Amino acid sequence: MKEKIMQIVTKYDADRTRLMDILLDIHDMQGYVDDENIEVLAEALGMSEAEVNETISFYHFFTKTPRGKFTVYLNNSITAVLRGRDAVKSAFEVACGTKFGAVSEDGLFGLFDTSCIGMNDQGPAAIINDRIFTNLTVYRVKELIKGLKEGKKLNELVYESNGDGNNADKDMQSMVQNNIRKGMFLLNKDYNKYEILKEDLSKHSPEEIIQIIEDSNLRGRGGAGFPTGLKWRFGRRVDGEHRIIICNADEGEPGTFKDRVMLTEYPDLVFEGMVVAAYATGADIGLLYLRYEYKYMLKFLNRVLDEMREHNLLGNKILGIKDFDFDIRIQLGAGAYVCGEESALIESLEGKRGEPRDKPPFPVERGYLGYPTIVNNVETLASAVKIVKYGAEWYKGFGTKDSLGTKLLSVSGDCRFPGIYEVEWGTSIREVIEMCGADDVQAIQVGGPSGVLIGVKDVDNLGATDLMKWYKPSGMMVAQKIYDRKLSYSDLPTGGSIIIFNNSRDLLREVVMNFMDFFIEESCGSCSTCRNLPFVMKQKLEKILDGHGVRQDIDDLLNWGKIIKVSRCGLGQTAANPILSSILNFRGLYEKDVKAMTDFDNIFDIEKSVDAANKYLGRKTEFHHN
């Protein structure tokens, strides 16, 4: 084994910054990295064993012990729960003869929970030995495990034909569906591959490309909305031996799967966007950080890159342009939501724990390996290509004054048509509901768990007179505003996740608790606020839901939600949002579980406590109530 590990280390030139790749290769070879392997790695890479252990322990898909010949990671996101995950989980346990979090005695099956895997429109879904199984049911689980016990291979047990589009490609062969419901200029099959690179790029200087992007007011589509042209201009001005373009494809926000679809159907457009960005900024190194959950795409995406190299669209002197040397490498993650934050992503690219860096310096000044680094989202880079092609003024014809262009929405939950919708910024919640075929809507989560949970009032079925009876004038305006709120940076900003809940759902017990569990699981633990407060807030919510809450508990939750915002990254700053936004928009759900809205803590039940003592001592106490 030592010899095999050394071969892997040699493959990466014993470069400690490639530790992620080395660990991934060892996992592919034997399924885990044990203490003996760690000792070999530490010596070969000039690291301490503690440093290697730090990286292994941080990521969800790394392990130091065997996890079974067939390792099942079952998605536990809220959309999977809504579609029968609990029954599917039980079916796995019965069929495999073990509980989740353990490996069967025969070592054949390992069952593990995992956070959102980007299959919200076709769940419950699981990753089994890097193959995606969607739309799981109790019957399908039984047949799947039965087949594996009989010695059949995983690819022989696929119960649905290959998915649509490139999902059926020979290098993908996935049952995943794209579910593209509405397209505009990004989701457009009229796209001519690499047209900008071949015909238009050399017509513009790098400064002119940056000016076009600046004039378009394109803002980052990852959620923060930072002006893309400004980031490119900063990156070009900073001196460095190398400049780096990073495409952030680590969409870990539960309910988001738009990048999966873009990389499946339009990888050429995304890679072309990286090349355009490199030309504009003078970058020579490109990295695409792909979340581990999308590992099934890796061979296909690398083939696309190889084809680009064959046509001189990557490599030295791209298309004969002097001094334009640029290539792209794909880096797999290993399961960590926080790596969606750009500085944490860079730490991971360097082979370390994905902990966010203190800022300044910002990545554009000092990022990957200390070089000026521009990090853009998949959707942002794709949009840049279209803008260079058709111009800034064309782009300004879409969207609203402060939110230009289109937005890719990942819509899931209680609706008839979950999937990907490309809409103009400024689209209302009302329109989203109508497009996806949702009815009896109680609430919508905009922007995933880190976003906001908004209520939807059914005002359409009431006449004006009835409305005046139901609401005070200000109340009516609020109800109407909620229903017609618009997706935009000034009203409802979103990275793309839209999850719909109908009136059969228990928002606090099902939805909010699920989201809080997610943040507790995904915290990197670096900040004490993010490490502790989500857990404490969840306990407080449980107290309220158990009927022991008091008015002060709601105030405590609101106050703690302010404190957590001092965390240094977006995960920590938004980890309380599920509770805060549900209090803001659904306070009545909290108040109905607070006993008589008292100011004193009535959690202590004297009769229950005495009864427990009596059972232990074998005696009986009678209570007389006046």
Task: Explain what the structure shows.
This protein is α/β, with parallel strands linked by helices. It has four domains: 2-58, no CATH class; 70-160, 3-Layer(aba) Sandwich (Glutaredoxin); 192-395, 3-Layer(aba) Sandwich (Rossmann fold); 406-595, Ubiquitin-like (UB roll) (Roll), CATH 3.10.20. It has helices at 2-11, 19-30, 35-45, 49-58, 78-82, 85-96, 138-149, 195-200, 206-216, 228-237, 258-265, 267-281, 298-310, 342-349, 378-390, 392-395, 429-436, 464-470, 473-483, 507-522, 528-545, 551-563, 570-574, 577-591, 606-617, and strands at 70-75, 102-103, 109-114, 126-128, 131-133, 180-182, 244-249, 285-290, 327-332, 373-377, 406-413, 419-424, 441-446, 452-455, 497-502. A six-stranded mixed β-sheet has the order 6-12-11-15-13-14. It has a five-stranded mixed β-sheet with strand order 2-3-1-4-5, covered by helices on one side. The chain has a four-stranded parallel β-sheet with strand order 9-8-7-10, sandwiched between helices. Strand 4 (126-128) and strand 5 form a beta hairpin. Helix 9 packs antiparallel against helix 10, helix 11 packs across helix 12 and helix 20 runs antiparallel to helix 24. The protein is globular. The chain starts with a helix and ends in a 9-residue tail after the last helix. Residues 458-480 have low confidence and may be disordered.
